[in-house]
Amino acid sequence: MAQALTLPQPRSRPSAWPLVFIWLLAPVLLAILAVAQFELNYVDRIYPGVQALGVDLSGMTQEEALIALEEAAAEYDLPPLALRHGDQVWPLTGEELGVEVDVEQLVAQAFAVGRTGDPWQNLATQWETFRRGERITPLLRVQPGAVTQVIETRTASLNRPVILPRLALSDLQVVMTESRPGQVVDVEATKIAVMERLESGRGGVVDVVVRELPVSETDLETKLASIQALLEQPIVLADPSGDYQFALDPATLYSLLETQEDPSAAAGVRFEIREDALRPIVEGWAEQVARPPLDARFDFDPNTNTLIELSPGVEGYALDVDATIAAIAEAIRNGEHRITLPVKVIQPAVPSNNPQALGIKELISEGTTKFKGSSAARVKNIEVAASKFVGVVIPPGEVFSFNKYVGDITAANGFEDSLIISGNTTAVGVGGGVCQVSTTVFRAAWFGGFPLVERWAHGYVVSWYGKPGLDATIFTPTVDFKFRNTTENYLLIKPIVDKKKGILTFQFYGTKPDWTVETEAPVYSNRVAPPPPLYIEDPELPAGKVVQFDWAVEGLNAVAKRRVIAADGTVLVNDVLKSRYRPWQAKYRFGPGFQPPAGAEVKWAKR
C-alpha cells in the first residue's frame, strides 16, 4: 500500500508584541516602584520643599521639625505693625502684644502638605512642592488682654473729655464758660482690627478708631440767674426769739463760694461754701450767742428740814456751729436768703422748778478743821473760799471739782496775801488758807463714803489740819480735789465758818445712802527729823532783830484706810490713802549784828 508523502511544514516566526509590551511597561513599573519607595521613605517625614519660619523642613520627622521650629520661633518677630492716627504712628512689637508662634500647629501644617487629598492629588501636590516649594505661614497665639492694654496705653493722649459750659465766679459776677466736644478711642474696634492682622500673620498699619463725644445741651440760664440773684442780697440768720441776728453780705458770700466738679449737675459743677473760711465766722457768732446755764443754788435749814432756794436755775444757750454751716450751704443751693439760727437751749444740771425731786432732806456727812490763831488775811481767804461753795448742788453721778467753784486764786477774785507753800519754802502769796477749805471738803467726802477722783497731800505737815494724812491741797488750775456723788439723789454742800471759835465745817445734805463707812486713824512711819534751822541775813531788818517765817516739821509717811460697805455686805470702796510729807526746816531772817546759833545753816547777805 502506497504511503502518503507528508511534506514538512514551514516553522512559524515568534510574535514581537510581548517584547514591545515588556519594553513599554518597564519604565512604568520602575516609576511606580520609585514612587512607592519615595512614599515609603516619607511616610513619617515632611515632603521636600516645605519651609516655615525660614527653616527647610524637607525630610524631617515631626519631632525634628518641632525642635527646629522652636529654635526659629524664639527669634521670630512680627511683620512690621503699627497704630496710626493722623500724623501720629505707634510701632508695635510681638513681645508687648503677647504674641507667640503656634509651633505645634505649624509642624502639623507642614506635615499635612501632600497628604490631604486623593492619591493623584497628593502626588501632584508633592511634585509642585518639590518644584516650587511651599512656605507655611506661621499661626500666632495672641493675648487679647495685652493687645487691649497696649492700645489703651499708646493712644491715651487721644482721649479728650467733653468740656461743658460751666458757671464760674469772676469779679462778683457769675459767668458761663465755653464748651468743647470730646473724643475717645474705641479700644474694642481697634483691637479687632489689630487681632485680624496678627492672626493672619500680616503686618501693616491699623488706623485707631476714634469716636467723637458731643456736647450735651444744658440749660444754664436759669441757674446763672439764680446764683447771680443770690450774690445780690445778703443771707440773714436769726433765732426765733429775735435776740440774735447775723448776716452774710454779698461780698462775703462771694469770698466763701467755690465751684466743685459734679457730673450729676446740669453744668458739671456745683457751687459750694468753703467751710474753712465760713467756720471762723460762725464760731465768732457762737461766742456771741454762748451763755452757759446756771445751776440753781439752795440752802438747807436743819431746824425745819427745809430746802431754801438761793438762786434759780437759768437756761443756757449755744449756737450749733456745724448745723449753722450746713444750713448756710443748703440756703446757697436753694437760693434762700433767710435762715433760722439753730440755737440750742441747755438746761441747768441743777434745776429749780421742782426742789422736792432733788432728794435733799437730811445730813449725810460733815468735815471740820480749825483755823483759830490764823492771821486776819488767812481768815479772810478762808471766808472767801468757803463762800464760793454756798448753795452748790452736785447731781447724782457727777464729779465735784473744788477748782471749778473756787475759781482763780487772785486778788481780783477776793483773795488776799497770806503765807502759802511755794516750792521748798513758805512764802507770802495770794490765797493762803484756801487749802484749809479744800481739806475740810475732803474730810466731809472721806467720812461720807464718797469715792475720791483726785486728791493730793501737802508737801509737808501743816499744823492747821491736825493729824497728818487727812488733808488735801489744791493749786489752780492743775492740782485739784475731786470726788464723785454716787448716791441716787442730789448732794447739797453747805459751808459754815465760825470765826469766833476758829472752826470751818462743810456739811453734805441729801438722802442718806444705804452704806456704812469704816475708817481707821492714819498710821505713821519713816519719820525723818527736820534739817537744822536756816538763818538768812536781811540787811533791811533792824540790827539784831530775828523774824521766823517757817517752822520745823518732821517728815513722815501716813497711811489712812477706809471701807464703804453696802447693806448687803458688798464692799463698794476700799481705800488705802498714802501720803508722804517731807521734813521741813525752821527758817529765820535776821538783821546785822545777830550771831546765828551753832549748827544752823546760814546764808549771809552779799557784801
Summarize the structure.
The chain contains 14 helices and 37 strands. It is of the alpha+beta class and 607 residues long. A four-stranded antiparallel sheet has the order 22-30-29-23. A four-stranded mixed sheet has the order 33-36-32-37, with no helix packed on it.
How would a crystallographer describe the biggest sheet?
4 strands, antiparallel
Mean pLDDT: 83
Name the beta content range. Answer: 25-35%
Spatial separation of the terminal alpha carbons: 209 Å
Helix content: 25-40%
Outline type: elongated
The number of helical segments is 14
* Number of individual domains: 3
Helix/sheet category: alpha+beta
Calculate Rg over CA atoms. 55 Å
Summarize the topology:
Blueprint: H1 17-41, E1 50-52, E2 55-56, H2 62-74, E3 81-85, E4 88-92, H3 94-97, E5 100-101, H4 103-112, H5 119-132, E6 134-136, E7 140-141, H6 144-154, E8 167-170, E9 173-176, E10 182-185, H7 187-200, E11 204-207, E12 210-213, H8 221-230, E13 235-238, E14 245-248, H9 250-256, E15 257-261, E16 269-273, H10 275-289, E17 297-301, E18 306-311, E19 316-319, H11 321-334, E20 338-340, E21 343-346, E22 362-370, H12 376-387, E23 393-394, E24 399-401, H13 402-406, E25 417-422, E26 425-430, H14 434-448, E27 452-454, E28 482-484, E29 491-498, E30 503-510, E31 515-528, E32 534-537, E33 546-550, E34 555-566, E35 571-581, E36 587-590, E37 601-603
